[in-house]
Write a structure and sequence with these properties.
Length: 290
Amino acid sequence: MTSPLQILTLSLTVALSAYFGPIILSLLAPHIQSLLPSSGDGYQCPPHSYTTTIISLDPLLIYIHNFVSSIESSSLVTLGTPLLEPSPVTGYGSDAKGSQARTSWSAPLPSDNEFVSCILARAESFMGNLLLAGRDEIGQAQLVRYTEGQKFDLHHDWFSRPRLLDDDAETGRRRLYNRVATIFLTLEAKNVTEGTGETWFPFAKRVWADGTKKGAGGEEADEKEKYWREHEDGGLAFKAIPGNALFWVNLFPGNGSGDGRTLHAGLPVKGNGVKTAMNIWPRVFFGPDA
Ligand SMILES: O=C(O)CCC(=O)C(=O)O
Ligand SMILES: [Fe+2]
């Protein structure tokens, strides 16, 4: 027989769950999707939860914290790893493979994969008014991997002359494009030691570069220095931290020409370090066929 104490306990449990249940659910809701399995089954693109810090205003360079979750990172790495090949260098007019300037591995990522399309949509929404709907494109994502000694020497991501879109070859349309901006996202950094595998911008200056070491943020500024440092040869070097990304604008807004101050390098990964990252290069189109 059920005792009065059991009935009381049961009623209390029901009442408490009815009261606290919705509160607990609403607290968990933003995190539930990122806890789903990495197989892709049942994955639904969650709303973003990144935060941003403006590093430089001119050119615009923004540090993005937690652009992707660890589930998203590992799924992208798993997806792209079997596709990796020696990296081409496309910025200088030809797609030379095996260049000594860029010794990493890379792979285009299929845009129809649910993780890739989710991150591209996130990137596109981050870009806001930089892309014109119906004309411009977010482009194809690229996975890159660096192992011992691999690097990408100083370069720009923009093309010195806009390129013709290969996809137009069959239609006779002649659309010219350039990479208006870059989102460079670190997905994995295994055994990547301090001072190695960084992304270095020799001309980057902090907004608050006024000769003093710290910004107005005080302790907050100290905290942020975990993510980047002043490089001994000038500019700023950003550490490879999984989930975090760099966003910068490659082209001058007025005439669409490339901004030389966006020069950057992927510094060598040393020892048994492995850095895996993702490039997103949104395209703006020019010319009468755009
Ligand atoms: O590896 C890096 O830190 C930068 C890579 C890069 O600049 C590129 O792939 O275009
Ligand atoms: Fe680059």
